[in-house]
Amino acid sequence: MPHGIASPQHGDQLPHPRAEILALTGVRAAAALAVVLHHIGLPASAPSPLRNLVASGYIGVPLFFMLSGLVLAWNYSTLTITAGTRLWRFYLARIARVMPLYWVVLLFLVIQRAAHGVPQESLWRHVLAIQSWSGDYSIGQASYNSPGWSICVEIFLYAVFPLLVPVIAYVSKRFGSLGLVGVMVVAFAVQVALVAIFTAEGWAFLSVKDPSSGHRWLYRNPLPRLSEFVVGISLAFLLLRGFRLRERLAGWVQVVSVGFVLVVASIGPSLADWQLPAFYGAMWTVPFAVLLLSMAAAPTAWLSRFFATRALVTLGTASYAVYLTHRPLLAYLGRDPNSMLADPPGWAAYLAVLVIVGLCLLVGEGAHRLIEVPARRAVLRLTRRPAVTERATEKVSA
Q1: Residues paired with residue 190 on neighbouring β-strands, in sequence order
Q2: pTM of the model
Q3: What are the DSSP calls for 276-318, one per residue?
Q4: What is the pLDDT of residues 320-361, one digit of tens each?
Q5: d(CA 154, CA 142)
Q6: Residue 266: Cβ within 10 Å count
Q7: What phi-psi label fits residue 246: left (phi over 0), alpha (psi between -120 and 50 degrees) or beta?
């Protein structure tokens, strides 16, 4: 088995013949860490480029959506809306993947708010994970667990996946790799058009609380996120068609794509008006797509091997739990947006950031092992019982 490829992870997916691409699992760790650092922030004494880089950590979210499309299509390239039992097992597997831990964290926050007498009128939206469809910022992102808005987006993307994958599969079969590149170009063009429209109309610069703002429509609304998701699906079909890169070429491609992201993010959305809406997603679609494709297509390239290390794969496996639990934890560590605590002086401020990051990773790993995995397995076991019972009945009847 090639380096960077592992056996399928059982218990969280339907049976499929394709192996896990370890480097992509490791990338999830980087995306989660970027979001965690974005919410923690750096001390005011940190160099401006470094503070801009950390402040731009929310770009890990569109990377998650692209990864989601790639991994789902890699594993379920033949799924269709008419797949019957297989379709419903897919949906149940997706719910088992994201919702149990989401509901546990939500329950914790509900109890916390109830203890303080805080109204909970929008709770039902969060229970159903449909909060991001609301134009009210307090409902869509500010209530309860703020990272939960992206779970609403994921649920939407899971819902439409069986509709999208047959179309892209047809394009792959009928038009080949050029057709897949065309799909990605169209998806990117939609993002660019939205950035241009929101910049020209001035909507991109409205307050995040404004229902017409770019933050509402380009960042947290599920519909624009279809672009990253479709690009991810198309990347998977390129790989399924046998796309590969030589190790040296892939290494240079990875250097350029990572360098672009780091340099642009360290500058921050400040050079031109269009940069703010572009930072919500369009700025990163091409470099992220190139990076993911190069790592999957050349598992022996230097960055592919780095992200396939055991430490990053372990963290990547727990990345969802880290992402979902870190924000409530920060409220107890003096990193809440409303906290009036000042940073400690000197190097102690940087040490505090490292300690907080470590605690977030530790709590996330614990939530993954103690809540996420057992709950997922329990839900998936329910899908197997009817089949077992049915086979046993058939034997008795025979």
Answers
A1: none
A2: 0.90
A3: HHHHTTHHHHHHHHHHHHHHHH-TTSHHHHHHTSHHHHHHHHT
A4: 999 999 999 998 887 765 554 556 677 888 999 999 999 999
A5: 18
A6: 17
A7: beta
